[in-house]
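Students often ask what a holo structure prediction actually looks like on paper. The answer is less mysterious than it sounds. You provide the chain, you provide the ligand, and the output is a string of discrete structure tokens encoding the 3D arrangement of the protein together with 3-phosphoglyceric acid.
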Amino acid sequence: MTKVLVATVKPFAEAAVNQIKTTFKEAGYVCSFFEKYESQDDLKKAVADAEALIIRSDKITEEIMNAAPKLKIVVRAGAGFDNVDLAAATARDIVVMNTPGQNSNAVAELVLGMLVFQARNHFNGKPGTELKGKKLGIQAYGHVGKNVARIAKGFGMDVFAYDPFVDRTAIEADGVTVYDNLKEMYKTCDYISLHIPATKHTIKSVNYDLLSSMKQGATLINTARKEVIHEDDLLKIFRDKTGFSYISDIAPDNREAIEKEFGNRCFFTPKKMGAQTAEANINAGVAAANQIIAFIEKRDTTFKVN
Ligand code: 3PG
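The corresponding structure tokens follow.
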């Protein structure tokens, strides 16, 4: 019987855990859960027997893979797979997959929730502003970006997007105006929402040059990855542009310094919350389970990323 380990520092919602268990039980697989673990050493011990792994933002390094000699497949229940050493996996012939789109509505709803929170001064009782009629620029129009656009239009926002990898007619079909020049979008919008993955091309790419082109009073929202922000430049922008705000679901390393110096011009969730809904956990977790079963039974490699 195939042994699957669900290793999640940040556990799935109970309903998702139950559905994952049922999915594997019906397929005749042995599935165990290793949640809220405290160290990579603990993870190393836990993976010893695993033939398949389901993870979230858990770090799967070469060392972890070496500690799992029977491992055939790792499925990241979610979108970003920058936490998995793809080269090491490929060298070991381990298939790595993600579950694209499964948690995107949850992240998109959080974006709009955080925008309202910021526009209303963190609900401190002072008059704020409305989102209706404001310009929102979406950097990267994947599953999350598309959902952000849909919900933002419900708020009456004017929605713009920059994504050189997506066919512009598909974006325009959503009633979204396409920018070919990223800086122009930064110059025009009241809000910029980041949805780029962390890759060697994007890490630290949101830098002084881009941020300094933002409108006076504009807000940057990041529910993607902290690594895409140039954190030293972020600090400079906070100081140079007195109306600039930055809100994020993934706090910068210099979180405390920024919070202390800039107060309500920033907001960081205590823990990454974007995909933390029962629905997203069920969608991504069960998709991951089914992808493992399809791979083991039929060598189905849809959603393979390495
Ligand atoms: C993703 O890449 O899918 C999101 O960042 C969610 O990550 P999480 O599963 O660690 O919450």
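The CA atoms of residues 47 and 68 lie 5 Å apart.
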